[in-house]
Amino acid sequence: MPSPFPGMDPYLEPHWLDVQTALATEARRQLNRILPSRLVARVDGRIAIESGTAAARRREYESTHAQALLSIDAPYSLVVELDPLIERFIRILDESGELIAVIEFLSPTNKRAPGLEDYRQKRLALLSGGVHVVEIDLVRHGNWRALMRPATCLTDAISPYRATVRVAPDVVGGHLYPFDLRHSLPEIQIPLRPSDKPLRLPLQPLLNAVYDDGRYDETIDYSKDPDPPLDDPDAAWADQMLRAAGRR
């Protein structure tokens, strides 16, 4: 069963680690069908810097666990290994391995300290080095305005979701695609080499494939409010959509 929403499904946001990985894989598949000759798309990953909240929870857990062990006289203690957070993204390379563009599916960690500044520095290094950066932001947690700096967003372009296309070597400006909740996700342009024809990546078929392949219709409880909650106008509209689709 398809998602009851025409564009981004806000109920996918709590499942972002899985969704991001699937988006990157599906985007690679789509891009490799339409990229010009001698360009390829590859999925890559990096360890993300945790937000203060996540790090605090990790330290709180470790501290509580250590205190509990003080009263246990067993000869051995179990070691807990907490897996690092891996963020997936797309690299577009030419036949020599030169990096042409990076496509990011932003996580909340990219939009709040300390990961925010780390990500901005990585983006600056890429743009300064002649690599284009495309950011697709489908999660509402985090400070998207801070990530957009030094650029600002016009009032009539403010939206819950967005994509930003930054063309190297411009490290300041960018091009914004705002996404609202009530319309399908658009096609966005992916900058490549000056000699290449413009390439457009359709986002809605990509998201639909991720939703279907992940069988999210089997596990999402649409009777509850999404996390984070929608603002009042969107919440009322979403309620109507869900009732019309028989999900409430």
Kindly describe this structure.
This protein has one domain. The protein is globular, with a radius of gyration of 20 Å. A six-stranded mixed beta sheet has the order 1-2-3-4-5-6, sandwiched between helices. It has six helices and eight strands. The chain starts with 15 loop residues before the first helix and ends with a helix. The protein is of the alpha+beta class and 248 residues long.
In percent, how much strand structure appears in the residues?
15-25%
Gyration radius from CA atoms, angstroms:
20 Å
Strands of the biggest beta sheet: in what spatial order? 1-2-3-4-5-6
Helix fraction, binned, reads 25-40%
Q: What average pLDDT do the residues reach?
A: 89
- Would you report the number of β strands? 8
Order of helices and strands: HEHEEHEHEEEEHH
What is the 3D form? Answer: globular
Separation, N- and C-terminal Cα atoms: 15 Å
The description of the largest β-sheet is: 6 strands, mixed
The DSSP helix count reads 6
Uncertain spans: 60-69
By secondary-structure content and strand pairing, the structural class works out as: alpha+beta
Summarize the entry for a quick read:
The chain has about 250 residues and is an alpha+beta fold. Helix content is about 30%, strand content about 20%. Strand 7 and strand 8 form a beta hairpin.
